[in-house]
Amino acid sequence: MNLPSARNLAFLFHAAPAIALCAALAACGADRDGVLEIAIVGGRDATLADTRGFTAAGGMIRAATHDGLVSFDAEGLIQPGLAERWIVTDDGLSYIFRLGERPGPRETDTERARDAEAVADALRKAIAAQDGTAFGLDLAIIDEVVARTGRVIEIRLTAPNPEFLNLMAQPQLSLADISATDKGLSLDEKRDMLVLDGARRLAEDGTEEQARPLNLLIAEPERAVAIFQAGRANVMLGGAIDALPHVELGGLLQGAIRLDPVVGLFGLSVARREDGFLSLSANREALAMAIDRNGLILPFGIAGGWVPTTRLVAPGLPGDTGMVTERWDGLAFEERQAVAAGQVARWRASGQPRPAVSVALPPGRGGEILFERLRSDLANVGIALRMADDADADLRLIDEVADYDRADWYLNRFNCTVTDALCSEEADALVASARTEPDPAIRALLLANAEALLSAQNVFVPFGPPVRFSLVRGGLEGFAVNRWGVHPLSALSRGPS
Questions:
Q1: What pLDDT, on a 0 to 100 scale, did the predictor assign at position 32?
Q2: 83-88 and 94-99: which strand pairing?
Q3: 298 phi, psi to nearest 5 deg
Q4: What's the rounded Cα separation, in Å, for the pair 415 and 203?
Q5: Dihedral of the CA atoms 251, 257, 258, 260 (nearest 10)?
Q6: Which of 183, 193, 195, 196 is most open to solvent, judged by the fewest CB atoms within 10 Å of its CB?
Q7: How far is CA 181 from the centre of its chain?
Q8: For residue 109, how far is the Cα from the chain centroid?
């Protein structure tokens, strides 16, 4: 039985007046009158922006206020959404969803069947809206969406994809035109609070129950951490590398930090340049070799749970052929820096000035720490580094969690049609061929060749997996660390009301 999203959410965007710190943070009034206080890292405008993509905070709110065919539970597992159940054909090319009942606009209305054609049409529009994005390339595996009967939808694929339901659970495919949960949204101007009314939901036995109200305090990284540390929230969600330096790990907070074991892209993309130091692949490789990845993450205090990589695609994914391995594995870090310094010397011997490159990093202490570490490593090999705005930078930080465990996700982010960073049309062609290849072995080989090509051209400087964490007080129900770093607000609303 599906557990629909919580519908009694209050979004508080600006910090309330300061309150005194609680003597015992775990017991202070963050769960007042049955209302769960949640801090989420993000900015108000970006969180509420009606765009094709979502920030982490925007995705949480979208998933809580709209329904997709399926959704994630607290542990990152697929659970029913609009569809109450589904089957997959033996060839893996068709997913057939049976839609559940939905409540009427008033509590006294009887439940009625969802219109499969309306849902299919809304889904087709949501898919089309992603054209020109990396997520749109992920969805290119969808061949057709068909309403079979009044309550049955079939989605046909161009090739089998065991991770397909993860795609369908993404907030971009939650349906505004269909979901009952997008009703009753209003802004309380006096309290600057966005209120979502109608907190009905179904319990596991099919009966209706009241969801616990949630107050969501949307704040920039430092402020979100401070809200939690001041005892004004039971949980802080959406933490990344820019929030981590603000966490005080002493006392009660030592056990509050929860790291999600995510994978994805965390490193530097390279802007397209026709001249200059980074226009040559050998120079880009020298820059990548010069970085001490373990040292880069050391100041953040999580090195023990973080494994660096020099690969564009996360190692060990299903279908990994082993053809692409860690780069420069036989060289110690000092040896890699010596090789990089030699390449810089050759560049200067050709009459070029000392190489100087610019980088765009997140504002705040986290970005400052990354910059200082990068600047020091690159200076050791003769490369000067300076900060720049995103639009003008030679290097830009990519910090994104993978939606599914396939090489396609990584390679799609470097497709020339969706990025203005360095890319390869030849690699894009290999990925496109893999998209319709029915033989898993051939498909894996095509994707491995695409990764090898992008690596040889040094279009990306990988650091390791992204860092995602939450701050959680003891005894909180509805929260679990998970592979995808998703923490549904609907699961948190299931506590006592």
A1: 54
A2: antiparallel
A3: -55, -40
A4: 43
A5: -150
A6: 183
A7: 23
A8: 38
CA dihedral 21, 25, 27, 28 (to 10 degrees): 30
Buried b (16+ CB within 10 A) or exposed e, 216-243: bbbbbbbbbbbbbbbbbbbbbbbbbbbb
pLDDT in tens, 45-80: 777 666 666 788 888 888 888 889 999 999 999 999
**Sites in the chain below the pLDDT cut of 70:** 1-34, 48-53, 102-114, 177-211, 250-255, 303, 495-497
Q: Tell me which DSSP letter residue 162 carries.
A: T
Residue type, 241: I
CB 234 within 8 A of CB 476: yes
One-letter amino acid at 438 equals P
Q: Is 28 left (phi over 0), alpha (psi -120 to 50) or beta?
A: beta
- Picking from 211, 214, 233, 216, the residue whose alpha carbon sits closest to that of residue 497 is 211
**d(Cα 411, Cα 91) in Å, to the nearest integer?**
25
How many CA within 13 A on the CB side of residue 265? 22
* Total residue count of the chain as it appears in this document: 497
